[in-house]
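Fold sample X.
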Amino acid sequence: MKADTRLFGPIEIEDEKIIHIAQGIIGFPDLKHFTLIFDCERETKSAIHWLQSMDDGDVAMPVIVPGELLPDYRPTVNDELLQGLGELTPDNTYILATVRVPENIEDISVNLKAPIIINTDTNKGSQVIVEDDFAVRHNIYSLIRDGQKKAGE
């Protein structure tokens, strides 16, 4: 699948790397096809990746794997919300959280209340509202800063 993206220019992504999100995501219900963009050229691993729409090249949002920064993050999700994804196991479940990057970088936050759950076997995903009392804007500045310091040691 090809897309002319605002951030990455023209890209071509193999069909098996396209994530299908049937209901779209919050704010973009008509966008159904996405891919993950990683910065493979960096010497250190970045916590932030990009969820790039393949339907609209202008739409790309920063995301993280919340469990990498917050090891205790285990959201409770109503099984009905995940029915269309196929059988989920610990090995094929990939959880992403959208990142909000404001002008003041110290206010960077992640939405833990509405993660995107992906079945990596089927490449189907869904953004869900979790039952837990997680924040929509959970500040992660110190976690990213401390992770970068640790990587530089």
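Fold sample Y, listed below.
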Amino acid sequence: MGAAAIALLVFAGAFVFLFLWAIGVFNSIKRKEIASETAWSDIDVQLKRRYDLIPNLVNTVKGFAAHEKQTLDAVISARAKAVNTTGVAARAQAEGELGQVLGRLMMLSEAYPDLKANQNFLALQEELTSTENKIGFARQHYNRTTQQYNEQIETFPGVLIAGLLGFKEREYFELTTEAEREAPKVQF
């Protein structure tokens, strides 16, 4: 075997190695991207659950505190905005606003003892509290998987493959103000 044949074999071996390495890095990035997308879907499921609870909660409060129209309208408006918002950052802002007005709605129970004692209202409050906790855990999971994906595409060697194949950094689900960071206060 001549020197040219050996050089050709070494070159071919290096090419095959680099090709297989690139496939491995691509698959790793893709798995992390899929995990981040799945985590976002988990958030959507919990947010839908929250959106479904809100009309029942508003109707229950309406029966006891009909003259609190401004608060009830604010909840309905914030829910509609959150439902129709797309994009991670915009969704986080809309969810923060919804959380604030839900907190105001929950505070109404302090002013209306009959409402505070209503079994339907208490059940809805408990369900909302449970949903808020699930949303919090889903956000944490999404941000963790998104961080792993972003880290993979921004560090070597993933940055080489990500740049060539057009992988883009994903946004985190972050609340932007201190008021949004506070969970709605639900008191029994």
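Sample Y note: The two ends are 85 Å apart (CA to CA).
Also: The chain has a mean pLDDT of 89.
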